[in-house]
Amino acid sequence: MADTLLSAAATAARLPYPELAAEIAALLADDTVVVPPRLVQPLPGGGSLFVMPAHDATVAITKLITFTPANAGSARATIQGDVVVFDIATGTRRLVLDGPTVTARRTAAVSLLAAQRLAPRPDGALLIVGAGVQGRAHLEAFAAGLGVKEAWICSRSAASAQGLAAHARSLGLAARVVDDPAAALAHCPLVVTATPASAVVLDAAPRSDAFIAAVGAFTPRMVELGAQMCRELHARGTVVVDTGDAGHEAGDLLQAGIDVAALPALAAVLAGEPVRPPGPVLFKSCGWAGWDLAAARLAVRG
């Protein structure tokens, strides 16, 4: 068990962001990948249990995690669990990966992949709204995969914002903490919203060359971006979703009255000609077990 059960640090070591983004792109081009619908079981007290299977021709996984919003602001993580990886030919368990680490890193790597392909100004500066686990992961991913050198950070927790700014500086980035994310939009062509998605945190016109990755809201009731902002981005720019599942999960877009099912998914964008669209880009990410399978494929090779 000791050889297969990886700690959070050991899991992270097997999932460097640029390599994970490349593995995600490879997975999207692999026609052996099968991803059944995930089971989301509501739990007493407002939490949820997620059961997310997936497989390709050689590896099968199941991700088992709990999402407990009530843990926000406490010493307990809001996302806990594991990703169990099996060899298909033998049925042998290959690895047990730390679930929160996989979730953080694969989500940021998907955003990185979308930005590599779609961002008009991929070198930043970068505005991060939300200084938790996902904010940190996206900071690291965009620094490693895009060469971002400047980060602006906004959080409802001043201590968390200062902590993430200090981490950015430790990576060699210039960093500042800001109170008003809407005002920072004028300076930052890259934007990531990674909040608990309990209320709108951004509802303003972005730059015409903006790339916005919205990752916090992954149910119909959750929201980070205001309805008017979503509608404006849809009208004068490009909106891309991570997968077709966003059609019933992307709270920001659904609450704005946008026909999410008609929007292009990342796989279709990657399969087309590598042309950056004109105007601002919104990449809406809701999550998918395929991203966890990509992480498992990379981890078993490590």
From TrEMBL:
Annotated GO MF terms: hormone binding
A single cellular component GO annotation:
cytoplasm
Q: Which SUPFAM superfamilies did the record assign?
A: NAD(P)-binding Rossmann-fold domains (SSF51735)
Name the domain of life. Bacteria
Q: What is this protein called?
A: Delta(1)-pyrroline-2-carboxylate reductase family protein
Native species of this protein? Pseudothauera lacus
